[in-house]
Amino acid sequence: MFQEYLPIISLVVLAVVVAVGFIKKINLGFFALGIAFVLGTAGGLKASQITAGFSSSMFVTLVGVTFMFGMASQNGTLELFSKKVVALVGRHTVLIPILMFLLSAFISAIGPGHIAAGILMTTFAMYLAFEMNINPMATSLYAKLGANAGCASTLSITGILAAQLSAPMGYTGFGLHLFLSTLLSGFVFTVIVYILYKGYKVKADNPMKWSDIPKFNRDQRITICVIVVVVVCCIGFKLDTGLFAFLAASVLILTGCADEKKAIKGIPWGTLVFICGVGALVNVINKLGGITLVSDYLKSLMSESTATPIMAATSGILSWVSSTTGVVMPALLPIAGNVAQTFPSVSYVELMSAIVATSFAAAISPLSTGGAIIMSSYSASKETTTEEMNNMFKTLFLLSVANVLINVLMAWLGVFNLGHLFY
């Protein structure tokens, strides 16, 4: 009798875990692993079946990539590179909004991902806005939207996670499609923000000058060369990203280009455990039938024309209260696989692209890391009143809602299939 209710119980447990993490502000990864043990044992699973959901290959890849880019951040390479690029526009400050988006997307895509690139570039954008006397909210939004837009490359955390979750279902080779879909989604809303905040009228009182910015030192030049080699070898020759990143990090350590201890401390261990821990819990829920139950329910609401927008809307709503990489993707991509099998004309890659893009569309909410970074950067740059922070909270949340709705519309119009050109 108890076994019959396991799928429902497992879903209730997932909802409780997410709610506890949201309310208590604790790391869901550790909590999820403990709950996965209890739930799996109650469902008759062996310890090896429970821990199988904790992807060791993904953990190694994420540690390697974040370790290498932690060094590039720690020795000032990424920050100095950003300043030099911004200085290239000189007095053509109307290009600053476009540049912030492209620069953030580039840095996010080559490895650091939306969290590291978002923190780096949003903080830099806020500092730059006050320095140049331009709109700080808009400038930081361009940076954060760019970091989200570029984060689904095959070198970044999101792209790596998508590949790891999709491979067991038989889906591979979609890296470029997913990257371009997420990039397009971020670009569309950036254009809207650009028009809304009149970015075309930006005029800075104090443009950043190339002559005021120091040259790359020896350590930074080596770091840039190492990153270029990683990008070429991992994308061009399809070498294992995580293991190659460890090799690159070793080169930086041996050449004395970065402080190894600081770089290790800079690895987002909590985030990595978060992703892998929740993945283990979702794996247990899947084995107990919870994912199938949700899939069947969603499929009952869908037709071939509404499957993609419904999945997109679901991901956006989930992302308001949880992490894209930690919760949304591990929970929804297996469901997308079931939906694609039910509706032969619905592409799994299109579903996955809509899920990822819409989830990141919600990630500028102040309830998520992205919006929180913008608010904290603003308050750190100047004294703020409670009214100011409340207004910023409301603005960011409304923008997040608008971004999700636009992505759902894009999903309904079939934009995320990209004309079937890349998959």
- The value of Rg in angstroms is 21 Å
Determine the N-to-C terminus distance: 45 Å
Mean pLDDT: 86
- Total helices: the number is 20
Oligomer state equals single chain
Q: What class would the helix/strand composition place it in?
A: mainly alpha
Helix content estimate:
over 70%
What is the percentage of strand-forming residues? under 5%
Number of strands: 0
Q: Give the low-confidence spans.
A: none
Element pattern in H and E: HHHHHHHHHHHHHHHHHHHH
The largest sheet, given as strand count, sense and whether it forms a barrel, is: none
Q: Please, how many domains?
A: 1
Shape: globular
Structure description:
It contains 20 helices and no strands. It is mainly alpha-helical and 423 residues long. Helix 1 (6-24) packs across helix 15 (290-301) and helix 15 (290-301) crosses helix 17. It is globular, with a radius of gyration of 21 Å. The relative contact order is 0.15. The mean pLDDT is 86.
